[in-house]
Amino acid sequence: MLVQSKVCKRCGRERPAEAYYRNSRCSDGLHSWCIECKQADAKRKYRALTPMQKKVLAEKAVAKYHRDIEHSRRLAREWRRRNRGAVNARAKELRPGWKKWTKAPEYRRAVALRYRKRHPDKVLAYRERYRAAFPDKYATWSRNRRARARAASGSHTVADVRHLFVLQKGRCAACDRKLARYHVDHIRAVARGGTNDRQNLQILCSPCNHAKHAKDSIVFMQERGFLL
Predict the structure, then answer these.
(1) Which residues pair with 183 in a beta bridge?
(2) Is 93 found in the same domain as 45?
(3) Max CA-CA distance within the chain?
(4) Rounded to whole angstroms, how far apart are CA atoms 17 and 11?
(5) Measured between alpha carbons, how far is 142 from 157 in angstroms, rounded to an integer?
(6) DSSP structural state of residue 197
(7) Which of 102, 148, 173, 212 is most enclosed, with most CB atoms within 10 A?
(8) What stretches of 68-151 show up as alpha helix (H) in DSSP?
């Protein structure tokens, strides 16, 4: 049965039961050190670790979180509910930084660029994982990014590409081949001044897309014997 208060064996202060972690191995159900002393000791031990040890510890924490994400999220919600005052105080402390983050896109870009320069391996690994998990989204992001780099107007979404695939009945616009995998082509190439809008897109098979490259669509089709 839990006691109402207890003397911390670390700092010697008598504190209420809420100031202690639960510990079933102790006779009174509370840890012998108060939460404040436990946290201070944990910080001291963490600062004494080497960078490699800190990295291993972080990887273990991430692996533990992903083993049962729903359980981890439930624990986080319960902690926030029990410590609502501390959460609100921390939010109030960080609010000026949030305002700066949301209202200053230049600042966000600078932070992102600094992170990419410091951690190129992490960024590359994350992109590869994202590409494997969401190939359509990654391909659309990549096309929009290349178009912006060429100062092309317009953009398109994954939904635009999927709708176009349905309109073409899943067939190549050049050779009418039934497609399992496909390429998204700009009818008028961006390199020749074409836009990146959905109206300038078509679905091609891989051989046709590579053969067309940046050619004019009419010239490309005439080379294949079509009278356009």
Answers:
(1) 204
(2) no
(3) 94
(4) 15
(5) 11
(6) S
(7) 212
(8) 69-82, 84-103, 105-118, 120-133, 135-149
